[in-house]
Design a protein that fits this description.
The chain is α/β, with parallel strands linked by helices. The protein is built from 8 helices and 13 strands. The chain has a 9-stranded mixed sheet with strand order 2-1-3-9-6-10-8-7-5. Strands 4-11 form a two-stranded antiparallel ribbon. The longest helix is centred in the N-terminal third of the chain and has 20 residues, at 86-105.
Length: 373
């Protein structure tokens, strides 16, 4: 399972056609890829520019800013609301600048990345698999059935209803046995998504026994060679439901529930306009990722939106060798020093393999499997 991935890197199989092949273009099938980045972090801009070039994609920087440079009158707030911390304000405003740009240019869709993310050299193949899974969950079935979608809990019921009350449950859909769905017309990822949360620090599966509007279906991709063994996987969410419920080398695509960190997410034009209204003009009272999660979950009166994600995610924070204080512009990582660079959950990391990719050398798997017994 630790074979050299050079054979698929930047390649397009003969079977890919139509919208599917758009995933292999220079923007992963979106109209643009934006990277939110402080102009002063030239180190991060150098790194992600190189990673993008090695991956055959084009990125455009959106200038972030320091929170102290955002005046109180530019921050929507409620009665008696105290000003958030400068780090949270800067993060929020940087992401809102990217969302504003999507609306201003009238882009059909865009992927927004934070400037310290890393990904696998097989990212385009991973995104193709994610797109097929997303479509299995949200596109109408090609053939008539008792329910128009493979996920019988999709679309969501009326507010206040319980899935159990409706007699609905949604068994896992195996990636190798996904039913045929109607071809998408607008995006390789499907016609009905609002937000694709592709990079996060942790999230949970939608609850089977709870009330709420989040569909419960899952597409389960077992024996995914791009996923490390469970002993290597990390998440901020406890308990780790992926490890508890599935075997090694499994990736699961599902509707996002309680995601943490906005490392990478894609939005449509319609969603960008909604976010500009909900997160840009209404009180800013929580960190940006929590506001984004409430937009997806339907919390704080924002209404549910179709947000899809996956465990493990595809974009993760790269932690370079060097002083830990340089690892984040939002939180304090202490005064220690890391001797070795690493990226959690990414096997053939682009950043960790940049030298090998440039020189045409064999690539290094950060998380090789244990030898077979």
């Amino acid at each position: 399972m630790s074979g050299n991935p050079h054979s698929t890197f930047l390649g397009v199989s003969d079977e890919e056609s139509g919208l599917n092949s758009d995933i292999y273009n220079s923007t992963f099938g979106f109209e643009k890829i934006f990277v939110v980045s402080l102009p002063s972090r030239t180190d991060r801009r150098d790194a992600i520019t190189l990673s993008a070039a090695l991956s055959g994609i084009e990125v455009e920087f959106i200038d972030g800013l320091q929170g102290q440079d955002v005046p109180d009158k530019a921050i929507p707030s409620g009665p008696d609301q105290e000003r958030m911390g400068d780090a949270s304000i800067g993060s929020w405003r940087g992401h809102m600048n990217a969302i504003q740009e999507i609306v201003r240019r009238n882009l059909s869709s865009a992927l927004i990345l934070e400037d310290d993310v890393d990904w696998d050299v097989r990212i385009k193949d991973q995104l193709r698999d994610f797109a097929l899974s997303s479509r299995a969950l949200t596109q109408p079935l090609l053939r008539e059935s008792d329910h128009p979608y493979a996920d019988v809990t999709y679309p969501y019921p009326s507010e206040g209803d319980s899935y159990i009350d409706l007699g609905r449950s949604s068994p896992d859909i195996l990636f190798t046995e996904m039913p045929p769905t109607q071809p998408p017309r607008t995006s390789p990822y499907g016609d009905n998504w609002a937000l694709l949360w592709l990079g996060q620090c942790g999230l949970t599966f939608p609850r089977e026994d709870g009330k709420g509007l989040i569909p419960k279906g899952r597409v389960v991709h077992m024996d995914d060679e791009t996923v490390a063994e469970k002993r290597h996987l990390t998440t901020w969410t406890k308990p780790d439901e992926l490890k508890a419920q599935y075997p090694d080398h499994t990736r699961v695509v599902h509707h996002a529930y309680q995601p943490l960190c906005s490392l990478g997410y894609a939005v449509t034009q319609r969603t960008a306009r909604q976010l500009l209204h909900e997160l840009g003009l209404k009180p800013f009272d929580r960190a940006f990722d929590l506001l984004l999660a409430s937009f997806c979950d339907g919390g704080a009166g924002r209404g549910h939106h179709d947000c899809l994600s996956l465990q493990p995610g595809l974009f993760h924070n790269h932690l370079p060798a060097g002083p830990r204080r340089a690892e984040s512009d939002i939180s304090d990582h202490g005064n220690g020093y890391d001797e070795i660079a690493k990226t959690p959950n990414v096997r053939f990391s682009v950043r960790m393999n940049a030298g090998a990719l440039l020189d045409g050398l064999p690539l290094t798997d950060q998380f090789p499997d244990l030898p077979a017994v």
